Amino acid sequence: MNLAEKLNSYADNYWDFAHYRENNPVLQYPAKMVAPMQRQLLKDILEFDSDIYNILDPFMGSGTVLDISRELGINAIGFDINPLATLITGVRLEGIATEAIEKSISELFGRFNLLLGNVDNHTFFNIEKWFREDIIEALSLIRAAIIEEKDIRTRRFFWCCFAETVKKFSNTRTSTFKLHVKEEEKINNMKNNCIDEFKRNVLMHYLEYCFKTNIDVELKTGDSCELLKNYSTNSIDLICTSPPYGDNHTTVTYGQYSILPLLWFDINDLAPFDTILLEKFTAIDRESLGGRIKKIENAKEKEYNVLLNNISAEKKKKIFSFWNDYELVYSQMARVLKPGKLLVLTLGNRRVDNKELPFDKFNDYLARKYNLEIETTLSRNIMGKRMPLKVSHIGKQGAVKSMSKEYIKIYKKK
């Protein structure tokens, strides 16, 4: 039995992992990977190839794949354009100062009383729109108390807990990842128990991070295409990732979701990144793949057009721009991957003009173009979605269905 046969030998709907739910994570993050599904996938791959010493996820998000690589003892390399993603993944992979954490928590909570009335309110552009005045005071107190923690790994864990508090007590709606102000009545009726919620989050989760990592970890914030150029050809043993299915503006607005917590952090505790990403609430999404519509070569436009049918010319510009940016990353992934090694992609086909875009077929096309061959394709139903089953209305067509199925595409470099 080879790997493809093993992966296809499981029962129908096995890869759905229908009963999996992530309960009360330290920080919610949009569109997370299904951890047990990725764990089984990696275990099966290792069964047929034990010669894997590093794994790359160039769209790491909250770090699910790389956290599993830590469990399996594989060195981790990860990139993301979003500084919040790098923070979360770093905490998941590097853990906290185990021997001193309970003392650090006790001192942190004690500082809430010591600093009360002695902290200047934190500020950034338009902060009053997104937070009530008394909430600003409470969050500023928590922020100041975190900054006084001496250990950076512990501070980063506290920032993750704080991010969830910031999200919960902001004036934004929870029904969407985009920034939309709640109704005034809901804002006024919101109970200010920021400090209690923050404490609860810390106490609920700190034991999960009481470990010292046993692998080498390289995490970077930035453009995956540019970051990949720093790695040697044929240097990566396994690439496993879930790439964006379209530009962030029209799929999942990770940047808008993340920007408010990021504006509250001490950015000195974050991995280095271009601070232009914090200048506008849409900046992270704009700098992501396809975030800026660019003119592409006529020859490439003709190549892409073969895969698209009956999509309006205006929408095609956005799709082509995203596909072009994605191809640039794909070409670098193919370059750094060692011959005979695997590229594993979990992806889905979003809808435009109420028509399904064949992102899975586009990846098959790129594989042929960049010297990879398809090993197998698995399909799974998306379970427990936070996104609604139907999204925006298009003209006279009514509500557009959102994605309900994903594909696991496995390619081998020739």
From TrEMBL:
One GO term under biological process is:
methylation
Signal sequence, start to end: none
Answer yes or no on keyword Ion transport.
no
Q: Does the keyword Methyltransferase apply?
A: yes
Task: Tell me where in this chain the DNA methylase N-4/N-6 domain is found.
Answer: 11-83
Output the Gene Ontology terms for molecular function: DNA binding; N-methyltransferase activity
Which controlled-vocabulary keywords does the entry list? Answer: Methyltransferase, Restriction system, Transferase
Question: What Pfam families does its record include?
Answer: N6_N4_Mtase
The name this protein carries in UniProt is Site-specific DNA-methyltransferase (Cytosine-N4-specific)
